[in-house]
Amino acid sequence: MYHTQSPEEYDVVIMGAGFVGVCQARHLLLNIPNIKIALIDPRPEERTQKDLKLGESMVEVAALFVGKELGLYDYMTENHPPKYGLNFHWAKDPTKTETTDDYYHIWNNRQTLLASFQMNRAKFERDLLKMNKAMGAVFYPGRVVDVDLTPGDAIKTVKVKVEDSYLELRAKHVIDGAGRKFIIGKKTDNLLFGAENLFGVDTGSAWVRVKNVDRTIFHNGYDPNGATCSHYYGTNHWFGHGHWLWMIPTEKDSKEISIGISQHRSAIPDNQINTQEKFYAFLKANHKILYWLVMSGENVDFHYLPRISHTSKTFFSPDNWYVLGDAACIFDPFYSLGTTMIAFAIESVTEIVRAKLAGEPDAERKRAAYNEFNLTYTRINNHLIKEHDKQLGNASIMSWRIYQDYMWWFGVIVPMYAGKWHLDLDFIPRYVKGVQTNLNGYSEHLCQQFSELVAQGKNIGFMDCYRADQLLGNYHPLEHFDNFVENTKLEPRRCNIFACMKYTSFYTAIWYALFLWKGFGFGLLKPRNLYYLFYHLNNAIQCAIGEIIYKRFTKDLPANSQIAKMRQEFTTYRHQPQLQKWIENVEVSVGKEFNRSVVGANDQRS
Ligand SMILES: Cc1cc2nc3c(=O)[nH]c(=O)nc-3n(C[C@H](O)[C@H](O)[C@H](O)COP(=O)(O)OP(=O)(O)OC[C@H]3O[C@@H](n4cnc5c(N)ncnc54)[C@H](O)[C@@H]3O)c2cc1C
Q1: Using one digit for the tens of pLDDT, what is the confidence trace for 170-205?
Q2: Which atom of ligand 1 approaches the CA of 178 most closely?
Q3: 263 has which bridge partners?
């Protein structure tokens, strides 16, 4: 018999307890004292093999978010595999793919300055749900069947089916973290599908999880002259025409890996890859090393997702609803940016909710600015995949493309995140405008040039994004241009983003000049190319001016206030060469402690 129970009131109701749901709940609980949160998910709390999900690899921003903002460094270290950057492989000859020797490689050759993680998603979600409950979140093991999205600050009602009963949960703020069920997206006509809305990206994906693999088929771990870190614990990307494959270790003890393909439909139709047999046959024909690897272990699961990409018109609505994670957007798993987009979005939502609950006057301004920022940042990630269908298989062009993507990732995005510039109301409009100009102009032009060179079959050399011996001086794309890691400039605005953007723009100009020279020779001098060269140099100058202003306004701010406080306290430090007495107290104090613990235990029992 169905019956509706009386409504429960919360500050925030989160629909879905996947990565988004459990991380958002923890972030809200850590940042807003006494907040009342409900989490809803039909999956059992004890997740099983059936609940294995994608999103098993993090990069620096997501790792900073999970480790630092959610306080989970110890948990991640103890429970999930480490990560050593991204490796990229292209077959020298597509008919011969038996061993790593048959591939050209960009190996991550060291531990990057900021460590990252791989993860077993079922385990992560199970453990975080428990932590959230222990911190006071209420979990409903049920399915959202409807949500009443009232306008503005009016209370919303979320209808949940738990076993045979219906419940109504009421809250001012409702978050859709229910992934591809698109609870709010469908209700509000908020979703955008189709290549025409996604810079032409049209991909599907097939993947397997396999345990107890013989990883020596991939690499035996011995590469004394090649790297100062593991190859296996990187996220390995394998390329070919119209596709790339990921290989991610998701469990240390059971030697479990996730291997999957992102297939561009223009090159590989759905019906050629949509079963496990076809997927394995594809591996056997095109990446035999991966075929041997999956055959060496026990298959755990297989999935096929015909349509990966979508986005949304609005992420954070003035009506206090929010779409995050897969419910909001995903373009392609290249570079593992899903959890990074989620990190930016979660911090934005927490700040909007905090400001709105506190009745702060700029709360709506924050909502509008953060919505713009997140839409813009995700558009960059969408553009990163543009024309991949033509370019992925070309080792030369892709190595240049990856090099430039790395320049902006480490040069700007990571420092921007670390300095909390994505929450800064003065910075956001300038950033959004700059990105829009860039996407419509330079990025578009460059993408066409990449495709032109692919069509010509030109070899313009191989760029290794980890090395410091290819561009100018000792430059390498992993440089941040501010010592925010060394000097823990982790509070808002402490990291000098203007210096980061200035140098990244300057080196991009150098990179672009070299690329034009290698790709087009004297074609470098075409007006459009020169225009974009000066565009980068001009950006560097603008950022230099921004840096002068920034330094003026922040000159009295310490790099880190905890350190400044400790240094202040230390001014009264005096060395005290003394020990406190202990020998005469040994038996007495141990006896007392013992008595106290016995009495305490007896009290509890009675
Ligand atoms: C092929 C592929 C590979 C990817 N690889 C990566 C990667 O390596 N790294 C990365 O960062 N990102 C990756 N991503 C992106 C990844 O999907 C996201 O980063 C992330 O997993 C999204 O998490 P989520 O919480 O939004 O969704 P989910 O993890 O799907 O969680 C949604 C939750 O909502 C629940 N739910 C469903 N319906 C309801 C309902 N009616 N009521 C209540 N709850 C409901 C579900 O049970 C589920 O637990 C990949 C994506 C794809 C498509």
Answers
A1: 999 999 999 999 999 999 999 999 999 999 999 999
A2: 34
A3: 204, 243
- Residue list, ligand 1 pocket, CB within 6 Å: 15-21, 40-43, 53-58, 62, 143-144, 177-179, 181, 183, 205, 260, 305, 308, 325-327, 330, 333, 336, 338-339, 342
Count of C-beta atoms within a 10 Å radius of residue 298: 12
pTM: 0.95
Residue 597 has pLDDT above 70, yes or no: no
Phi/psi of residue 259, nearest 5 degrees? -130, 125
Here the CATH number for the domain that contains residue 317 is 3.50.50.60
Position 374 pLDDT exceeds 70: yes
Ligand 1 probe mutation, 123, 312, 330, most atoms within 8 A of CB: 330
Same-domain check for residues 376 and 472: no
Sign of CA dihedral 331, 335, 338, 344: negative
Retrieve residue 458's tokens.
Answer: 């030109």
Quick one: average pLDDT of 7-15? Answer: 93
Same-domain status, 233 and 362: no
Identify whether 160 is part of a domain.
yes
**Range(s) of the domain holding residue 482:** 412-597
| Per-residue pLDDT at 371 exceeds 50 | yes
